[in-house]
Write a structure and sequence with these properties.
Elements (H helix, E strand, L loop, with lengths): L1 H21 L17 E7 L10 H15 L2 E2 L2 E9 L4 H13 L5 E4 L3 H14 L2 E4 L16 E3 L4 H14 L4 E7 L2 H16 L3 E8 L7 H10 L3 E5 L2 H13 L8 E4 L6 H5 L1 H4 L3 E4 L7 H14 L5 H20 L4 H10 L11 E2 L5 E2 L2 E6 L12 E7 L1 H4 L16
Parallel strand pairs: 1-3, 1-4, 4-5, 5-6, 7-8, 7-9, 9-10
Antiparallel strand pairs: 2-3, 11-14, 12-13, 14-15
Helix pairs in contact: 2-12, 3-4, 5-6, 12-13
Length: 415
């Protein structure tokens, strides 16, 4: 009798909680949290050994670890775990890792994924498996365009915002003829496409482009083509080590001395020491985060620096922000089921070290301020990481493409 008496009230409580959930008014005291497999598990799929390693890589892993630790290591009483892997900038390796994580290792959220071609594959896989994909490294605007997903969020930047912020500023100053040196893969193509559209929309013209293979060392041909084009602006539609190598060789060929301006459309704080202020000085750039912006960012950067030995990039700060926001959403939703967690993320503004009043649109783009920055001269810089002046803060609604122009099929069009 004692056992029967014990079971019946518990059964009734579950029955009552179920009715309340169906009515849309579940009581937190009655509804039981639903954490799949008894653990919330993140997977940082990143570049640990290639050209994007400084901007993402180990720093992205550390940023995720910091966010988990700051949250207390548990959510809804269940442990939070983290795994990470190097995709080696190869689509087959990246996709094999993502499948193993989702299917065998029960990873709930994949993070980062620099290299847009890999990210596009992971986006599709995430949709099929009903998991969550939070993107910091990949920039292709297709990820929130035609290839958007209900469970995918592009957290930090996209190719449109990179081109729009700095590109618009340069064209409006009279730098209205452009030549592109472009990485010959998905990200480079999208960055050149979006930047070209921005230039033309503001009255400028594109004189040509020269493409190069990924992880290249010799850019002599591309630099010579850029120089002979006579374009006022030579725009680099690539990233990481490729961008650094182009800038160094452009200096050797005297592009800046000849009056041409160089703009690296994706250039992070960790790229500056690799190039040197003597070469990078004066460049106008787009960034989503700068460690020396305010007291809050400086405090976060100091903690990060103690673990990594360099200041955080926008991608690494974005990892911290996204992990924190996801965990808050799981706690509020009472579950880590993908659609419920993402729905809660979209209901809640993002206010942290990365973004103020940020929010996630229906197309999966997180909207937040972007910054037009200029690289300091050697004389202006007071330390190794004191490299930017913030020229302008561009509101997210102006930096990112408007939702009514989105190709995302999830977006409801209004007439």
């Amino acid at each position: 009798m004692a056992k029967r008496t014990h079971r019946t009230p518990f059964h009734l409580r579950r029955w009552a909680a179920g009715l309340a959930l169906l009515a849309g008014a579940a009581s937190p005291a009655l509804a039981e949290p639903a954490i799949s497999d008894g653990v919330v598990k993140f997977g940082v799929l990143t570049d640990l050994s290639g050209p994007s390693a400084d901007g993402t890589g180990k720093g992205s892993v550390v940023a995720a670890e910091m966010a988990i630790a700051d949250f207390g290591g548990k959510v809804l009483g269940k442990p939070i775990e983290l795994v990470f892997a190097d995709h080696q900038s190869k689509t087959d390796i990246g996709m094999a890792t993502a499948r193993r994580w989702y299917d065998a290792e029960k990873v709930d959220v994949i993070l980062d994924v620099p290299v847009s071609s890999i990210a596009l594959g992971v986006q599709q896989l995430t949709r099929e498996r009903n998991r969550v994909f939070l993107m910091m490294g990949p920039g292709s605007s297709e990820l929130t365009g035609a290839a958007c997903s209900p469970n995918g969020v592009q957290w930090v930047y996209n190719t449109y915002a990179l081109a729009n912020v700095a590109g618009k500023a340069l064209v409006e100053r009279g730098d209205n003829s452009w030549f592109f040196i472009t990485a010959d893969y998905t990200f480079g193509h999208m960055l050149e496409k979006d930047a070209s559209a921005v230039v033309k929309a503001h009255g400028g013209k594109v004189l040509g482009s020269a493409r190069h293979p990924f992880n290249n060392n010799d850019f002599a041909s591309q630099v010579v083509q850029a120089k002979t084009s006579g374009a006022k602006v030579v725009a680099l539609a690539d990233s990481g080590q490729d961008t650094q190598n182009v800038l160094k060789q452009a200096a050797e060929f005297g592009l800046a001395a000849g009056g041409q301006k160089l703009i690296a459309l994706l250039f992070g704080i960790t790229d500056v020491p690799g190039v040197g202020l003597d070469i990078a000085q004066g460049m106008m750039l787009t960034d989503a985060f700068y460690w020396d912006r305010d007291d809050e960012t400086r405090a976060f950067a100091k903690r990060f620096y103690e673990k990594v030995g360099r200041m955080p990039t926008m991608m690494q700060a974005g990892v911290y922000s996204a992990v924190s926001h996801y965990l808050k959403a799981v706690a509020a939703a009472g579950t880590d089921e993908a659609k419920a967690a993402v729905a809660q993320m979209k209901k809640t503004k993002i206010n942290d070290i990365f973004a103020k009043d940020g929010y996630i649109r229906d197309d999966g783009q997180m909207i937040h301020d972007m910054y037009l920055v200029q690289v300091k001269t050697p004389e202006q810089s007071k330390s190794k990481w004191d490299v930017y002046n913030i020229v302008a803060t561009v509101p997210g609604e102006q930096a990112f493409q408007s939702l009514d122009k989105s190709a995302c099929p999830l977006v409801k069009k209004t007439r």
